[in-house]
Amino acid sequence: MKRVWSAVLLAAVLITGATGCSRASETLSELKQDLKQDVALNVADENAVQEENTLEVPDPNDISIEETYEPVQTIGEAVPEVTVSLYFADADGEKLVKTEKQIPKVEGMARATIETLLEGPEQGSGLLAAVPTGTQLLDINVKPDEKKCIVDFSQELRNQLAANSTSEELAVYSIANTLCQFATIDEVEFRIEGQTVTTLAGNADLSGAVTANSSIVK
Q1: CA 24 to the chain's CA centroid
Q2: Domain membership flag for residue 50
Q3: What is the mean pLDDT of the chain?
Q4: Are residues 38 and 111 located together in one domain of the fold?
Q5: Could you tell me which residues are beta bridge partners of residue 121?
Q6: Distance between CA 143 and CA 68 in Å, rounded?
Q7: What is the per-residue burial (b if ≥16 Cβ within 10 Å, else e) of 78-88?
Q8: Residues paired with residue 143 on neighbouring β-strands, in sequence order
Q9: Distance (Å, rounded) from C-alpha 125 to C-alpha 9?
Q10: 33/107 same-domain check
Q11: What's the domain count of the chain?
Q12: What are the residues facing 88 on neighbouring strands?
């Protein structure tokens, strides 16, 4: 812009000078030409700046969105079930009675079956729980190569058990018979609170593994 104003002032001086109208006319013509060139250059510079500061906005139609999602389990989808055998005491508390129940099929079936056994018999069945109420399964370890199952129970299995041979025998074989239904288990080893035991109430011998006993089943 300084160059433009300088050109205008120069034109005024030349016009009013003694060189004459012809010279002034030529000078004005040259100044107009320079002025046009300056204006063109300024416009070009401004356009270049605008182009540099212009953000490129992508076309929404060119944007692709990749959808990712986790598969959702359908509500009400049927869960596979399996029939297991559970052994409870009869109404007289003298023998075991074999019952069957449908439970969900899971990876650790031995654990799931014993936990179901500890829930006790169905109401109205006329059967009794052979394992003392409150007994909890702390751990279970199935060794298929040895066909052995090591079960660890809470202290209620021993402390809440009636001090007679029949009750102890029913409790032991309620558990052993229930576990030995599985092809990978032939014998059961008992533990209480992580410790090996030789007996529960002083009658049953638990110093070694216990096998199923069909003679106690009614």
Answers
A1: 91
A2: yes
A3: 81
A4: no
A5: none
A6: 42
A7: eeeeeebebbb
A8: 148
A9: 119
A10: no
A11: 2
A12: 97
